[in-house]
Amino acid sequence: MAQVKVKFDGREISVEKGTNLIEAAKLAGIFVPHFCYHPGLPVVGVCRICLCELEGRPKLVAGCATSVEEGMHVITRSKKVADARRAVMEFLLIHHPLDCPMCDKGGECTLQDYTMLLGPSRSRFQFEKLTWPEEDVGGKLVLNKNRCILCMRCVNLCKDVAGLDEIAVLNRGEQTFIGTVDGRMIENELAGNIADICPVGALTSKDFRFKARPWELTNVSSVCPHCSKGCNIVVGFHARRNEILRNTARTNMDVNQWWICDRGRGGFHHVHDEKRLTAPARRGDKGYQGVSWNEALLEISASLRDIILRHGARAVGVLGSGTLTNEEQYLTRAVFRDGLGITHIDFPRRPQPEVRYAKFTIEGDKDPNARGALLCGVAPVQSGLGVRDMVRAAAEGTIKALLFLRGAPSPIPRAGCSASARF
Fold first, then answer.
1. Residues 264 and 356 in one domain
2. How confident is the model at residue 123 (pLDDT cuts 50, 70, 90)?
3. Which CATH number is 318's domain given?
4. Sheet of 218-223: strands edge to edge?
5. Is a pLDDT exceeding 60 seen at residue 410?
6. What's the chain look like in SS3?
7. What is the CATH number of the domain that holds 62?
8. What is the pLDDT of residue 276?
9. Are residues 259 and 288 in the same domain?
């Protein structure tokens, strides 16, 4: 698109024509505060905290709803702008409760930050504040209307991204509040994003409520492993407790934009499941007993070598997984097929119904890397058996050893297989 030259507080930059003032100001290294504006949602211009002054114009304009024009001079730090923003903050804080110490949004709350930066130091409101009880609104969310500033981000996310009218602005005047339509629960699987983009603690995540403060977490960039979309996420890890406490969306315009689904958002709980196997164990007369990894790997390799020498490579089967990385898929093929000559190598497919929303799709494959497995050669060759045939052959005793690399189909054979290992 065509470029135009504009000034922000005297600093001239070139920017694409049609860019709004908030985004253009970022290019000039200037921050324009905003509540209702989000680059992935429609512009509604309801919060008015992004008011800016344009040289030569008598009235302030909303930065989110105003596009740059050639020769425009935008002023963001004048007394006129500061007074307007302070007035907006005073109105937003009239009914807002002073519960920052117990609010889950504390530490990453936009209203809290702007109050310190722009707002009045004390309230002039001397009447009784409006109060509402907390509500479970579904979608892994709890609604606290007392904290809501009516920015409409939640409404626009459900309507524009999910394509569903599940949450709306209800009533008028001082009694206006955010609520679910007809009292129904939020059912779309993108609702967890609301907790991320809510600028206050009005809609918070049930998973993360009262678990920790944001500044206690170490945020690690990662990729969601719960479908083939490959959404970019941020894993919130509590180092002192050695525990994952939340997954949030990480922006990637080529994959998931600003969003993730609720399956990926809550997909970390298996890591701390009490039933999860975290160390090798050997089955003996007195049940399962723990062994070291070195001991387990040596015993497994010796058992495999013995079976291959006595019965041949066709007596061994390897069940890979679509959850492994490309490097692990390559090693699966290189070690077992290329190195040991095993032809029975395959992995179980895990299709699921595809879920299409207006601007987001949950893919129809539970595995994050089924394609990588196939491209790396994790598939039967030279009359090798597939997953079901391997399981059947193991149960019948034709296959003497069956290895599971992260997961396995059900049921797992218990008889006829002289050696088995799961990683």
1. no
2. confident
3. 3.40.50.740
4. 218-223, 232-238, 243-249
5. no
6. CCEEEEEECCEEEEEECCCEHHHHHHHCCCCCCCCCCCCCCCCCCCCCCCEEEECCCCCCEECCCCECCCCCEEECCCHHHHHHHHHHHHHHCCCCCCCHHHCCCCCCCHHHHHHHHCCCCCCCCCCCCCCCCCEEEECCEEECHHHCCCCCHHHHHHHHHHCCCCEEEECCHHHCEEEEHHHCCECCCCCHHHHHHCCCCCEEECCCCCCCCHHHCEEEEEECCCCCCCCEEEEEEECCCCEEEEEEECCECCCCECCCCHHHHCCCHHHHCCCCCCCCEEEECCEEEECCHHHHHHHHHHHHHHHHHHHCHHHEEEECCCCCCHHHHHHHHHHHHHHCCCCEEECCCCECCCEECCCCEECCECCCCHHHHHHCCCCCCCCCCCHHHHHHHHHHCCCCEEEECCCCCCCCCCCCCCEEEEC
7. 3.10.20.740
8. 85
9. no
CB 256 within 8 A of CB 190: no
| Residue 124, both tokens | 């002039």
- Which range of 130-134, 138-142, 160-164 scores highest in mean pLDDT? It is 160-164
Q: Is 201 exposed, middle or buried (0-12, 13-18, 19+ CB in 10 A)?
A: buried
The percent of residues in the chain predicted with pLDDT above 90, rounded, is 79
Q: Provide the domain count of the chain.
A: 3
Torsion, Cα of 253, 257, 258, 260 (10° steps): -140
108 touches 214 (CB < 8 A):
yes
Domain boundaries, position 8 = 3-92
In sequence order, what are the beta bridge partners of 361? 356
Same domain, 11 and 33: yes
261 and 286 together in one domain: no
Q: What distance in Å separates the CA atoms of residue 316 and residue 304, rounded to the nearest whole number? A: 8
Domain membership of residue 344 (yes or no) is: yes
Q: Which residues pair with 402 in a beta bridge?
A: 317, 420
pTM score of the predicted model? 0.87
Provide the pLDDT for residue 412: 53
Whether the CA torsion 103, 107, 111, 116 is positive or negative: it is: positive
The encoded tokens of residue 386 equal 């597939």
Q: Which two tokens stand for residue 319?
A: 């069940």
Say if 409 falls within a structural domain.
yes
Looking at the structure, tell me whether residues 295 and 229 fall in a common domain: no
Alpha-carbon span 311 to 300, nearest angstrom: 16
- Domain match, 259 and 333 both: no
